[in-house]
Amino acid sequence: MSNSNSNSTEVITANLLRLAGYGLLLLALSNFADALLPPKFVQDPTWEFTTLGKLVGTSPVPIIGLVLVFYGESTARSAFGKNILKFLSWLSLLLSIFFVIMLFIGISAAIRINGDNNTQASAVASQQIAQFNAIKENIKNTNDANLKKAAEFIEKRSPNIKLDKNNPAELRNQLEAEITKNEKAIKQNIEEGKNKTFRQLVKQALKWYFEAIVSAFVLFGIWNQTKWTRTNQRRKKKGSKSATSLADVASTPTFENDSLDSEDQ
Asked: Does any domain span residue 147?
């Protein structure tokens, strides 16, 4: 009586876990659709990179769902349920390959993003340098009155700067030195911003690459450990053959014993 109760409890527990597993797989399907649709592969490296992050961020959901569905190998399943298990086993392999592919896509996307960031930073730096060069030319060619106005404007923006407005030649030198100083500061800020962006990109990329590798490895392990779902029919055939052979042996007449009995007589 206790054995039947324990068996029924085990079946109920297995069914509940499988139900939860199917629910998690549906949630994973929703997450994958949200991350991948509409697809922008090759077109947008930022989309590719962030999509990798979304997929690996939700990878525990399908992994746990698959494990729950496969729980209880010995528990009775319908023929339809066995076909679903076979499909999910191959799906684990496909997802493992998919995460490996997304890993390489993410690497390519990070390289392209870094190149775009460098190009944008170089464009901003060139624009700023061109503006400073234009200001320098204006200072060299302008008259003393305009030069004095430029000095007053700079003093308003930077009260700590003291310019000799009574000496036009010295004022030009001071203005050129101040512009050169600001030019170097802007170049330094752009370079620091570029390096900071690169470090953040590398940090995020390494995290997502590691998660993609782990997800692919676990999914491949699930596929490898669920061979019983793909070879279930073969097991039955082998079992029936062995049972048939044992029955044949059991039904084979013992001629040797009969001959011995006849000799004794």
From this structure: yes
How far apart, in Å, are the Cα atoms of 15 and each of 39, 227, 240, 245? 36, 21, 28, 36
Q: Which amino acid is at 72?
A: G
Domain membership flag for residue 246: no
The per-residue pLDDT of the chain, averaged, comes to 82
Tell me whether residue 146 is in a domain: yes
234 within a domain of the structure (yes/no): no
pLDDT digits (tens, 9 = 90+) for 139-183: 777 777 777 777 776 777 666 777 777 777 777 787 788 888 888
Closest CA to 52 of 107, 111, 114, 91: 107
| pLDDT over 70 at 237, yes or no | no
Residue 138 burial (CB count, 10 A): 13
- Whether the upstream peptide bond of residue 38 has omega within 30° of 0, thus cis, is yes
- The range of the structural domain enclosing residue 210 comes to 2-229
